[in-house]
Amino acid sequence: MKCFTGRTDFKIEEPTVVTIGKFDGRHKGHQKLLSRMLEFKERRGYRTAVFTFDAAPASRIAGTVQQVITTNQERRNNMAKMGIDYLAEYPFTSDVIHLSAQEFLREILIGKMNARAIVVGTDCGFGYKRSGNAAFLREMSSRYGYELEVVTKERDASRDISSTYIKEELAKGCMEKAALLLGEPYAIHGTVVHGNHVGGPVLGFPTVNLIPPEEKFLPPFGVYVSRVVTDEGVYGGITNIGRKPTVEKDSFVGVETYIFGLNSDLYGKTIEVQLLNYERPEQKFDSLEQLRQQLERDKEYGLSYLDKEKALC
To answer: Residue 20: beta bridge partners?
Structure first.
């Protein structure tokens, strides 16, 4: 996949089928849009192209960090995994903010993305004050000569599946429900860094540590049953999210995972930690021995949960 990040000076030469959006979470609704694009690619031979911004618009407007389910790097990974050919992470500047819907369509979607087909959801919005929508795209399709497909939203019972809905479930620690809406487990990607070296030598639970970026939306601090994807394979584990109050003096938030059955050195390697089930909140223990005993119980809980999950597959 070719990615244009923070650039306006690009032009895709091949005819494309394009979609637009934030794609935070790549949930079932997003997957439906992307699947429609792949169908266009198969039928028409168009390359698939996704337009998004390099930062959440609300972050740039308000000057604060907006929490996202998937970071930019995670979104790139997701798009590549889906087989998307081009991803444009466009800079959200004053010039872009003030583009009319027609200018956005003509200059960006047609001019830079080379759209011959456009696939959007029923609630899409673009251009100044979101003046462009699905009806506008349909009206302009004959003028600019592109095909248009408007995809209805995926629903969960009576509610539309959205990033907001998923964040609500994550905030409650409802990892199974979040996975149902996402179509896959909620995950944290990152490069393994050195921790405090207490887990292995002192507690007998060697762990790998990730530092999530500031914008990453995290579920409640606590212990989770997890699945860890590495270059060497996929393993079960237990993961703590939080500040490790029993052993840490620092205040940074970390993601620390004890991986079942893996003793390899993962420092400097990129891994994916999928959170499957929220076991308990993070707590401070009076001694390292109390913490070690709790970790033994966490391990048993994790192994039991994974055994039940395997039996259901």
So the answer is: 51
Q: Which residue has the tokens 């540590």?
A: 209
- What would the pLDDT profile of 298-310 be if each residue is shown by its tens digit? 999 999 999 987 7
How is the beta sheet containing 47-53 ordered, strand by strand?
A: 2-5, 86-90, 47-53, 16-20, 115-121, 147-151
Judged by average pLDDT, the poorest of 68-72, 119-123, 265-269 is 265-269
Q: List the beta bridge partners of residue 149.
A: 119
Contacts of 273 (CB under 8 A, 6+ apart): 187, 188, 189, 190, 210, 226, 227, 228, 229, 237, 239, 255, 257
And the tokens for 241?
Answer: 């999210």
Phi, psi of 55 (to 5 degrees): -150, 155
The whole-angstrom separation of Cα 190 and Cα 237 is 16
- pTM value is 0.89
- AA letter at 134: A
Gap between the Cα atoms of 243 and 221, Å rounded: 8
Cβ neighbours of residue 168 closer than 8 Å, sequence gap 6 or more: none
Task: Provide mean pLDDT across the span 33-57.
Answer: 92
Specify the residue for token string 């997890």: 226
Angle CA 65–226–198, to nearest 5: 85
Question: Could you tell me if 273 and 188 are in contact, meaning their C-beta atoms sit under 8 angstroms apart?
Answer: yes
- In angstroms, the first-to-last Cα distance of the chain is 32
